[in-house]
Amino acid sequence: NTWSIPSEIDNKRKGGNNGKNSGAKQKKSNNASKKQDTFYEIILADTILFAEGGGQPTDHGTLQSSQSEDHDHEIEVLSVHRANDGKVLHKTRQPLAVDSVITMKVNWTRRYDHMQQHSAQHLISAVFRNRLQTPTKSWWMSEWPKSSQIEMEMKHSDSESISITEQQIMECEAAINDVISQGKTMTVHIFHEQSAIDAFAAQHSSFTSKQLPPNTGPLRVVEIPDIEYNTCCGTHVSNTRQLQMVKIVAFDVDASNGILRINFVAGDRMMVNFEAMYKREKAIGKLLSSGSDEFVGNIDKMQKDLKSKASQLRLAEKRLMELEIARLLSEIQTRYNQQGQTCVCLYEHFGVTGSMKLLQGISEGVLTDVQQQYGNALLVFLMFTMGNSTKSGQYIIATNDAQLLSAKNKDAKQKILAFIDGAGGGRPGRLQGKANCFKGWTQLFEFVQSVKTTNNPKNTASQAQQSEKKPIKNALSGLDAVIDQLEKRKH
After folding, report:
1. pTM, 2 dp
2. How far is the CA of 355 from the CAs of 350, 368, 396, in angstroms?
3. pLDDT tens per residue across span 251-286
4. Mean pLDDT throughout 352-363?
5. pLDDT grade for 455, boundaries at 50, 70 and 90
6. Cα–Cα distance between 110 and 117 in angstroms, integer?
7. What is the pLDDT of residue 66?
8. CA pair distance 87, 43, nearest whole angstrom
């Protein structure tokens, strides 16, 4: 006989209140977009499905009722877990009638994979413990077909340093696969009474007698002959040959905490991972036009070439930055000295050749020189954009006006962003981000001209003459420092 009960945790909603209220009492949301699935947890008189525990994930399977109206209809079991009172709960999306008789099926592909990984973990832990004195602290089985992990404790005396080498790891792997090839029978022993445990211990010297805790059910011990006895609730293969092979795909020695972590795959996961690696190898071979034995050399050569080209690109970008700064400074100088402008606004679109680093370098180089040459006598407002589109994309706005783009002048910032339909932020004197309307620069510049806050001190003839005579190349004297500062910010 079986029964289905909608208890406090049976009909709980995904992302709900952790089962604190009865699912049957929960009200449906009026918002259709927030509709969530209802789940049921079915209690059966017995089960063939493994409930999650001991590092092993839950089984999956189906339930099929014998009642006429439900005949031929299978209900998927999404997960199985054991409640605090010992009842095994089968999570489904559909209920079953109380006292209905059901046929249960296990997802054998998933179960067999779990058997292989769990038995492999027992064997790996035993071999490492026996050879390297690294008892297992915990383990975790990953979802198919990824590698699972074992965490081991590296014991040592105070006078010994912790050192486990790759050679030792490979030797353990070879020993593990040797046991697999021997085809040792794996046996599950179940003890219901303490006397049976003591009798078994007396007959098997390598088995240490254990106390059977009261009211907890039988003691279950998994044996790998001549290797180990291990108490375990999980599912296992019946012979080590069913593991096929074990491969340690990664390991990590955490010497400071005395922890060794092993990542492994076993059984059918070996073939799946090998096939995936082989396909990747073929794909990489096509990209590199070489065999796998040449991968390392070719990739190393490519990395060196990339570093060389990156260095050349940096020099070219630096030269481009110098030329742009010189060109813009010449334009500013002409407007100030010959046209008498005390507020110069410049817009440039750099297309695909631009980068935010380049735009930052140009703007800082220009404004630094303007400050050195003109002080507060000249306000410069720059807007640079870049990208494939001449209508929208990334931008940078910079000015030497201490008030126009100050943190306190939020109104001005909002108006500036409104002209270009943009968003962004930055330090005082600079805005950068994305804009949807580059052509708004004309209205933006009109706004800047109308609200310029820099006082225009008397521009003496000597100041003008000094500005005219100052060579443009002197304006670039601080460019290296600007570029170095940008590099530091980048890293």
Report:
1. 0.67
2. 8, 20, 10
3. 999 988 999 999 999 999 999 999 999 999 999 999
4. 88
5. very low
6. 11
7. 78
8. 7
356-374 vs 479-490: helix crossing angle, rounded to 10:
140
- For residue 404, the one-letter residue type is L
CA contacts within 13 A on the Cβ side of 255: 7
Measure the CA–CA gap between 187 and 189, rounded to whole angstroms: 6
Burial (Cβ within 10 Å: 0-12, 13-18, ≥19) of residue 79: middle
**DSSP-assigned letters across all residues of 20-74:** SS-GGGPPPPS-GGG---B-EEEE-SS-SSPPSBTTBPPP-EEEEE-SGGGTT-E
Beta carbons of 412 and 405 less than 8 angstroms apart? yes
Predicted pLDDT at 155: 76
C-alpha to C-alpha distances, 454 to 234, 377, 460, nearest whole angstrom: 78, 8, 17
Q: What are phi and psi of 346, to 5 degrees?
A: -130, 135
The span from the CA of 454 to the CA of 342, in Å, is 9
Burial class (CB in 10 A: 0-12, 13-18, 19+), 111: middle
Give dist(CA 162, CA 253) in Å, integer. 9
Alpha-carbon distance of 335 to 341, in angstroms, equals 6
| CA distance linking residue 1 with residue 208, whole number of Å | 40
The confidence band for 241, taking pLDDT boundaries of 50, 70 and 90, is very high
Angstrom distance (rounded) from CA 7 to CA 317:
69
Say if residue 454's pLDDT is above 80. Answer: no
Q: What six digits make up the tokens of 134?
A: 């690294």
| Residue that is written with structure tokens 């990664």 in the block | 250
pLDDT in tens, 308-351: 999 998 898 899 999 999 999 999 999 999 888 999 999 999 98
